[in-house]
Amino acid sequence: MTVNQVPVIEMRNISKQFGTFFANKNINLQLLKGEIHALLGENGAGKSTLMNILSGLYQPTAGDIYMNGEKVEISSPTKATALGIGMVHQHFMLIDDFTVAENIMLGNEMTNGLLLNRSGARESILKVSKQYGLDIDPDAKVRDITVGMQQRVEILKTLYRGADILIFDEPTAVLTPQEIQEFIVTLKHLASEGKSIIIITHKLDEIRAVADRCTVIRRGESIDTVVVAGTSSSELADMMVGRSVNFKTDKSPAQPTDVALEVTDLIVEDERGVEVVKQLSFQVRHGEILGIAGIDGNGQSELILAITGLAKAKSGSVKLNGEEILGLTPREINEKFVGHIPEDRHKYGLVLDMKLEDNMVLKEYYREPYSKGLFLNFNAIGTHAKTLIERYDVRTTSEKSPASALSGGNQQKAIIARELSLNPDFLIAANPTRGLDVGAIEYIHKALIAERDKNKSVLLMSFELEEILNVSDRIIVMYDGKIMADVLASETNEQEIGLMMAGTSYEEVLRQRQERGVNS
């Protein structure tokens, strides 16, 4: 890759205006052949809008796009596909009841006369799969495969249609650490095969691991394009948010008091009747943050759903301030001053078709001042929403916009704003910073610690080990539905937690720690 080569894509002075709001303003971007180019910016900075223009979903208000030096009009996604541009969206566009092969060939079917040539399509898919090192089972139903495998299917969909330019929107947001490593290997392999890649991400470590260059966007405008190898993470973060970012959250030692939540012998089964939470027992105290660490799929998600009333437990006890809450409805649990930032923001956090302002009062719309009798007070709802939008920097054109119009990160900020505004006594935060930029992550971490310092209790579940260690006071490690250890965050490290997440006993970790101490 040489910088003086003709770009495969050049976006010149691209602007996109919605009413009076500029989502993009005079942005310039060049993508070279075989390059992995990161697009970095805060939530709502305009990254996805810019890529939706390149993929034909939006038309620019102003500006031009060139491919290999020739001006092109990308008037639709179909035209983008014809030009060899494919986009893998943050939320996958797959049909659960179809097989992998059926999803890949959908809309680009191979036929013999009037008949669908399934065997021919299957053979072609396997050929592409082998060429790019993307192993899949073409006959598996999408609903039965992992999230990481679903992403492979999305990538193969674009490659099967002949894409040479691939755009990834927050590609690691729903992946486990192991799947992220596999994805990075895949990206590098695709680039070595001559594919040109744009990756939208907030994760600075991933940019440093995989990208050649990075273009930083702030509030709809391009700030700079830099060579990643010559730029530090702190420099990238500062360019993104326009100020210095503290990666380490400052906090005083916890001062835990009485027990807030007590879970005893909890058993939860999945939809197949298999135990995924196995006689779990632990406590969370007021004035502390308890972190739950574990690889996705080890029972953490089901544990959270059972505590919040969104899933039924088979047996056991969950007491809040000494009162049994297992078996109560989600609303009854909410009314006991429990806040819940859910892992799946679309399924449990928002009603996407509803206005943002209505989503902001989902848990209290039936109370004054938001309603009186059968009538809603729309002025009070709107005023409340505007206050939260400003306080939590939720980037939206209006409080009356549907929640679906917000970027994923701003949807997350809206949920966090709503839950914290309820002044919960006990807060459950499941992957609270997923999809957020470093500035927003810093803010949320400080907010969780501020809740703790008000003698509230926080249960934090996250797949980000750094987040667990940075924010938690105490950590329980889950593996195969059981607790492997209950340790103070200040007395362990990423390596030890990682070992226990993979099934190593706490006793073995202690033995290895002692061995290291003796040998050092």
Task: Write up this protein.
By secondary structure, this protein is of the alpha/beta class. It has 18 helices and 24 strands. The strands form six sheets. It has a six-stranded mixed β-sheet, with helices on both faces. The longest helix is centred in the middle third of the chain and has 16 residues, at 177-192.
Could you give a quick summary of the protein structure above?
The protein is an alpha/beta fold and 520 residues long.
Keywords:
520 residues, alpha/beta, six-stranded mixed β-sheet, 24 strands, globular
What is the C-alpha radius of gyration, as a whole number of Å? 24 Å
**Care to count the β-strands?**
24
Reading side by side through the largest sheet, how are the strands ordered?
6-9-10-3-11-12
Please state the overall shape, judged from the principal axes of the Cα atoms.
globular
Strand content: 25-35%
Query: How much helical structure, as a percent, in the residues?
Result: 25-40%
Helices and strands: which structural class? Answer: alpha/beta
Q: What's the average pLDDT? A: 90
Tally of alpha and pi helices: 18
| N→C terminal distance | 45 Å
The largest sheet is: 6 strands, mixed
| Low-confidence parts | none
Strands, helices and their partners?
Layout: E1 9-18, E2 21-31, E3 36-41, H1 47-54, E4 62-67, E5 70-72, H2 77-82, E6 85-88, H3 100-105, E7 111-112, E8 115-116, H4 118-131, H5 147-160, E9 165-169, H6 177-192, E10 196-200, H7 204-210, E11 213-218, E12 221-227, H8 233-241, E13 259-269, E14 275-285, E15 289-293, H9 300-307, E16 315-320, E17 323-324, H10 330-334, E18 338-341, H11 345-349, H12 356-359, E19 371-372, E20 375-376, H13 378-391, H14 408-421, E21 426-430, H15 438-453, E22 457-461, H16 465-471, E23 474-479, E24 482-488, H17 494-501, H18 506-519
Parallel strand pairs: 3-10, 3-11, 6-9, 9-10, 15-22, 15-23, 18-21, 21-22
Antiparallel strand pairs: 1-2, 1-4, 4-5, 7-8, 11-12, 13-14, 13-16, 16-17, 19-20, 23-24
